[in-house]
Amino acid sequence: MQLQFTREELLSEHDIVSSQFESGRVMHGGFDSKGCYISPRSKGRCRAISNWSKALRNRGGDLLRADSSLLTGPRIPNVPQQCVLIRNGLDRIFWNNLTVVGKIEGRGRILAEMTFPSLSDLVVEDISSMAIGHLNEGLLFAHGLDEGGEPDKEIGGHDVMWFVARDLVFGVDRHPDIEPPERIARSEDGKRWMPQLDQPYEMMLSFLMNLLVIEFRAEIGFANTQAVLSDPDLFEDRRDEAAIAVSLVDRIRTDEEIHVESLRLYLGELRSLTFRTKDGNTIDGKKIIDPFWQQLIQWATVEQPKLAAEQQYLAIKETILKHDNGHQILTEFDELRDAGYELVAG
Hints:
The protein is mainly alpha-helical. It contains 10 helices and 5 strands.
């Protein structure tokens, strides 16, 4: 079983019959002879991830556990609430969502431009036949191109795919542009969660775990977006375009499955290994990974969603009340809130 891969192998492409092209934009990936979507740079990468995952399990380890429990927490607006807003002409909130997601995806291109610290200096064991031994050999580069595309070649990534999906149902320049929050991962504010390690390694491990949470929880937004776009009572004069937009989001979800699985693999490998500490001793990787992961999940599924929902609700409420029928719309909006989050809509 092959466990060492060249950069060229990890970036290799499947043969495609046609490129992904929509609304005058070329986007990554393409289609086979049956019209099935094929993710970019997935030929060697997917085979490598599969082989490394098998090898990890053969050594008694496994991918870091990430399941539906990571998808909990209130969301404002949820699908029924978003539909109410759009039906009442308050569609800028949905437009903003699509724009912000696209721009955040575009930021992910930084992965193609970063060089991570060599983990061979942190890990006692030989990592040359593991995924974490290939992070700077094409794995993170491919991830970054998936997110932000190849602008120099005029090939769009997930950022462009979101903008195309948005413009299909809204038309171009429907609303003024908007910028996303400066930061969506948790701010550590200088706190050391892994004081046993040199700080560059702590920052790297924190980055990978935060990225996994973001990628995994993005599934909520993907599914909700497709549900809104699929509502036959919305965008009635653009139903064909909405169907194409749904397909674009589905292709993004296909690409993201590779990202989630690879991040779970990296962290699963790391927790199965032995780390060198800055005082010259060693420590099991799981004793570093697990405590940080557990408190990060508490923040991501309990603390942050409630805070974000409350902030979003106040902003949406202000927008709704500017409408001529604002109080009536707000009543309907509140009645559709997620069960168990009375204070969010109070």
